[in-house]
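About this split. The held-out portion is used to measure sequence recovery: a designer receives only the structure tokens and must propose an amino acid at every position. Recovery is the fraction of positions where the proposal matches the reference. Here is one held-out target exactly as it appears in the evaluation file.
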């Protein structure tokens, strides 16, 4: 049941989430998602009007859960909550070190996650402003990122590209390459983990998600990550009947 997000209601929502989890392991995960600092952050976001309703999970992962919610004006939003206890800190440090936008000296895991969330927010913002179809970022606070909900107006989330039925493969492939080009040339970012697992399909329109590991193009690792993204896309395009070479994608991205 949908309920306004305030102190008591978030506690009730947390209890509902935990009660719905069946196994001991799932109960542990529920507690990890809604820890004390996360609840306090949700209260602050609720007071600011960014979250009025908080509903069930859209997706769950080792590091973060994405929930469907609504703001004070009943606009649907996606609420991504990173977990401190299970996040891959070595991976985060690998992707965040050397980024000139961040100078992470603290050894605090929570501080690293907060910077990771801010990094995803900044990457989404740069991509969005460059014309790449990504969820519009709304606000990042501590371990929580609030962004545009991608899906139907009735609240049905968009499906991942790997799960969706693609009716126009040629268009989808061209659009994804166009977005990678804009990401590289205009936003000056490389996604770093681009594949059919990180692309949503909304009415045959691809939407790129999960830009937390994205790196600026002048980062020493950016070329390696771009090549990895292209290799992944070649495999995914082949699955939908599109054959394209690595050199051809590179030429399109870099206007060679």
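Reference sequence for scoring:
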């Amino acid at each position: 049941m949908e309920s306004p997000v305030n102190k008591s209601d978030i506690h009730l929502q947390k209890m509902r989430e935990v009660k719905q989890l069946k196994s001991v392991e799932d109960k542990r995960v529920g507690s990890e998602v809604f820890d004390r600092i996360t609840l306090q952050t949700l209260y602050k976001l609720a007071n600011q009007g960014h979250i009025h309703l908080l509903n069930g999970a859209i997706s769950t992962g080792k590091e973060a859960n994405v929930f469907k919610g609504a703001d004070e004006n009943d606009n649907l939003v996606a609420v991504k909550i990173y977990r401190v206890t299970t996040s891959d800190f070595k991976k985060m440090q690998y992707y965040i070190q050397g980024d000139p936008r961040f100078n992470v000296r603290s050894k605090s895991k929570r501080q690293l996650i907060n910077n990771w969330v801010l990094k995803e927010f900044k990457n989404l913002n740069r991509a969005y402003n460059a014309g790449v179809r990504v969820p519009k970022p709304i606000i990042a606070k501590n371990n929580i990122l609030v962004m545009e909900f991608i899906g139907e107006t009735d609240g049905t989330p968009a499906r991942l590209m790997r799960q969706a039925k693609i009716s126009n493969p040629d268009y989808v492939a061209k659009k994804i390459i166009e977005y990678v080009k804009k990401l590289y040339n205009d936003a000056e970012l490389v996604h770093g983990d681009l594949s059919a697992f990180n692309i949503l399909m909304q009415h045959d329109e691809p939407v790129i998600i999960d830009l937390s590991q994205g790196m600026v193009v002048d980062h020493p690792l950016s070329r390696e990550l771009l090549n990895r993204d292209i290799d992944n896309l070649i495999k995914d395009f082949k699955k939908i009947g599109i054959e394209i070479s690595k050199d051809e994608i590179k030429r399109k991205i870099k206007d060679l």
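Annotator remark: The domain at 7-148 is CATH 3.30.200.20 (Phosphorylase Kinase; domain 1).
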